[in-house]
Amino acid sequence: MTPSARLQAAIVILDQVIASARAKGAPADRIVADWARGNRYAGAKDRRAVRELVYGAIRLCGPLPASGRAAALQLASHFPELREQFDGSNYGPPAIGPSEEPAPGGVAPPWLEKRLTASGITHQAAKALLDRAPLDLRINTLKADPATLVLPQPGAPLPLPEALRLPPGTPVESWDAYREGLVEVQDAGSQLACHAVGAKAGELVIDLCAGAGGKTLALAAAMGNQGTLIAADSDRRRLSQLPPRAERAGARVADTVLLDPGRELEALGPWRGKADAVLIDAPCSGTGTWRRNPESRWRLTPPELTKLTDLQARLLRIAAVLVKPGGRLVYVTCSVLDEEGADQVAAFLADEPQFTAASLALPLGGPRGAGWRLDPASSATDGFFIASLSCA
Question: Which pTM value belongs to this model?
C-alpha cells in the first residue's frame, strides 16, 4: 500500500469507529481487526501503519469528530507530512479543500474535561490518560516463582514482587509461559487493587463483579488456593470465560455465581454476613482505561455516568450485607472521576456508620478522599480509585 492508500484506509476505519461510537456498537479494536481480515492484500507493515493512523487520530480528537476525514485532518495538523498524502490519487484521499477544518482537538468532550478538572486531574495528567499503555504481567505464584522464572523477554520490575513491564505489542500470548499459566497479562494498577484486598489463606473472599476473572485469579494466587473464593457477575458470557482461565492458571474457585440484576442477594444469600473480604470492581466510566480504549470517551454521556454512579452505590449496599464484622470491603473503579471514587465512598460511609475507611499506603499513586488514586501521569498505570472499608 502507498502512504496515501494507508491514510485513506484509516479514514474509512475512522468513519466506522465514529458511527459505532454514536450507535454504541463495536469497539475500535474490533473494527480495525475486521478491516485487516477483510483486506488480506494489506501486509503486516500496512496493517500496523493503518492502525497507528487510526489510533493517533482518535487520541487527538477531544469531542466525537464529524467524520473520519476531519479526524485525519486533526492528525495531519500535528504531523504536517500527512497533508501531502491527501493527494487525490487512485487509492488516496482527495486533496484538502481551502475551507476544510480539522475535527476539534482536546482530551475529551468539554463536559467530561470539566469533570476531570473538578476531580483534580490537571491538563497534563488528562493528556497522559491517552498515552499508549505498556504491557504489564503478573507472575502466577500458584505455578511459578518470581525469583527463578525465565521468560523469552525479560521485563522491567515494578514495585510489586509479581509484576513485570514489557513494551507494548510484546507477543506474550505466543509464549509457552503464558499458555501454561505461569504469567497473566494484568495492568500494574489492577494488580495493586488486588493487593489492597489483602486476601489470605483460609478466608472467604467474594469477587462481586468478577467479569472474566482477571482479579479473581490474582486473589486465588494471594490465597494460595486455600480458603473459599467466590466469583459473581451478572454477565453470563464474561463469567463463562473464568473456568478455562482458572484451569490454565491452576486457580481454585469454589463457586461462580450468575447474578440477576436487582435480585443479587437472592443468589448471594449463603454468604450473607460471612465474607472476610468482598471486592467490588465496579462498572464505571472507564476514564482510567482510555490508554487502551481511547474512543470510549466519545461514548460516555452525563445520563450514562449518572446510571453508573447509581449502580456503584447499589453494589456497595449489596457488598455491605455480605461482609462479616471485622471483615473488609474493597471498592475499586478504573476511573479517575471523584463522583465514581472519593465522592461515592464518602456517601457510603455517611450512610453505613458500621464501616470506616482503612488507611492504604500502596507503592504507587496517592491518597484521594477516603481512598487511593492511581493515574498514568503519577503512577504510570491505568487510572484507578481504590478504597478499603472495615466493618465494625
Answer: 0.95
